[in-house]
Q: What sequence folds into this?
């Protein structure tokens, strides 16, 4: 009887080991399936941006052109604040490292009114004589960015994660300015366009939580490093009967580089496939 009992216990042990092994294999299989389902991550984000460069030189130029101190400061303060939108897609090579592509768009706008001074041939006074007139500027600024991107991520518990991303690619700058001068009845709106581009660097950190397995919600902070060294300029100069288009390309001096670096704060969604 004892021998039979020992054999019975041994058989139960083997059966238990077999069940445990099957459970482990099932868990491993489910883990592999889950990993495969999360190989692709697509994210969209939007939020507030603030440019970091000093506007002292621009403020000085605006005052020289006829703007008030307060008007010039308000103009550049508003222009430095904007909004951004970004989208990216990554393929996770392993659970914590992925590669993909990123696109982002930054935009801001501002306007200013000033009183400008110009020499006049219409004055009845002897030279030098000047004509004062009102002029207003409405500027809209855009920065587009496309780049390869890499992501590194670490889990925090079961429902949270921290992701670090870095993208290096090409950024294009575009500034559209519309000016109206009430100098002569023949003068109309003048459109001015400035464009430039360069390599930009965009690191970002995101904290995300998972309300479901396929969706995460995150808060992110990023830094966008971008400087324009050459520009193409176009202007429509009012004439007596028509608008003549003036085009030129300039290489900026080092102390006059257009620095467009900024901080991005955003809220976003990530979709895991």
A:
């Amino acid at each position: 009887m004892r021998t039979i009992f020992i054999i019975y216990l041994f058989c139960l042990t083997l059966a238990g080991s077999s069940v445990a092994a099957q459970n482990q294999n099932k868990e491993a299989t489910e883990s592999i399936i889950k990993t495969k389902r999360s190989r692709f991550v697509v994210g969209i984000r939007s939020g507030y941006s603030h440019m970091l460069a000093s506007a002292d030189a621009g403020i000085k130029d605006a005052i020289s052109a006829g703007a008030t101190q307060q008007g010039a400061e308000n103009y550049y303060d508003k222009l430095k604040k904007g909004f951004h939108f970004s989208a990216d897609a990554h393929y996770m090579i392993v659970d914590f490292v992925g590669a993909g592509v990123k696109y982002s768009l930054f935009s801001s706008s501002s306007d200013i009114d000033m009183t400008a001074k110009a020499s006049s041939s219409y004055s009845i006074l002897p030279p030098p004589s000047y004509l004062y007139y009102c002029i207003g500027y409405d500027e809209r600024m855009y920065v587009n960015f496309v780049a390869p991107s890499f992501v590194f991520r670490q889990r925090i518990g079961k429902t949270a994660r921290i992701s670090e991303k870095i993208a290096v690619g090409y950024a294009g700058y575009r500034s559209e300015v519309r000016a109206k001068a009430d100098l002569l009845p023949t003068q109309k709106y003048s459109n001015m366009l400035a464009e430039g581009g360069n390599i930009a660097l965009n690191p970002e950190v995101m904290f995300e939580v998972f309300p479901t397995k396929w969706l995460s919600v995150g808060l992110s902070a990023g830094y966008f490093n971008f400087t324009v060294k050459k520009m193409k300029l176009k202007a429509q100069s009012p004439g007596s009967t028509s608008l003549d288009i003036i085009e030129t390309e300039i290489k900026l001096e080092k102390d006059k580089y257009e620095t467009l670096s900024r901080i991005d704060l955003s809220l976003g969604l990530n979709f895991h496939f």
Notes: The two ends are 58 Å apart (CA to CA).
